[in-house]
Amino acid sequence: MVLRLDSVWRFCRVRAFLILVLSYVLFLIFGGIVFMVLEKPEEVALVAEVQQLRFEFLDRHRCVKESHLDDLLKKTLFAEERGVAVVEAESEEYSYDFSSSLFFITTFLTTIGYGSSMPISDDGKLFLVTYSLLGIPMTLLLLSCVIHLLLPCLTHGPVRCMQTRWGLSHGRAALLHAGLLLALTATLFFLLPAAVLCHLVPGWTFLESFYFCYISLSTIGLGDYLPGGTRSLATWPGLEFAISCYLLLGLTVLLVVLETFWELPQAQALIRFFSGPWESQLDGLAFDELTLNGEFLPPLNLREEPQYLCPISTISPTIPDTPHLSSTQSPPPPDP
């Protein structure tokens, strides 16, 4: 039985990367099937409802041609997909004033891209292409510099403090700090903003607000939920500016959290395992020097970490003071 388990372990270790790829493909297929099962009935019901409303409208207004109604609906949907409010055009709400344009540029450069607004003119499309060639690298550079400045204060410093005060090893201290940082980030940048949006945006539940925060900070940006859908001229510009600041700050903190988890010895060991034993050493460490139990020697970072060893007097017997004898000298003869 032990030999069989050992052979299975060696097989998984050699083919770990292929197993990871196959598992990811199966995970994608599983997600697609579950999402289809959950959403397909809603889609069918929504299509049936729209078709019924269209039929009733044509039946009550026989003077309206079906082709004209279809043209109107297509044009309206085309405008709505580009963030132009044509259904309530008399309210003088525009999607491309300064605050809305600034909000769009922020989501564009951070690659969130809600998709609720998009350029209408060819000049606008050409500008965005050329603008992004410089803007996106500048955004990534700025975020990288900020993360580089924040990591010593938010990650390396607290880990050393845990080591010196609590006597933890580097692996355990880093893992504990990463968990605390993740919990704090989830509270300050997901739960609290969701509670605020739930009260500010009419009709939004806490789940919808939390979903918006997660979709935004994860840069998925589906755009199915946006506070602008129920905006008013009095509050929407300020809310747009606040959300823009929230996105920049939240992305920075979230990247710090990801970098903190990336530096975990456990994460490095896991990556090294799935990379395969044939790969070269990772960060100057051999594979046998990395384990997944939290004890890692030496630490992955280049800075020297404090070591916590017992005093030499506790593990070695007390050596009496004796004169130093060279190899050529013989000990004195014993007393008669």
UniProtKB/TrEMBL annotation:
It is found in: Membrane. It comes from Synaphobranchus kaupii (Kaup's arrowtooth eel). Belongs to the two pore domain potassium channel (TC 1.A.1.8) family. Its main location: membrane. Pfam families: Ion_trans_2. Keywords: Ion channel, Ion transport, Membrane, Potassium, Transmembrane, Transmembrane helix, Transport. SUPFAM superfamilies: Voltage-gated potassium channels. This is Potassium channel domain-containing protein. It is a multi-pass membrane protein. The chain crosses the membrane at residues 16-38, 98-116, 128-151, 171-192, 204-221, 241-262. GO terms for biological process: stabilization of membrane potential. One of its GO terms (molecular function) is outward rectifier potassium channel activity.
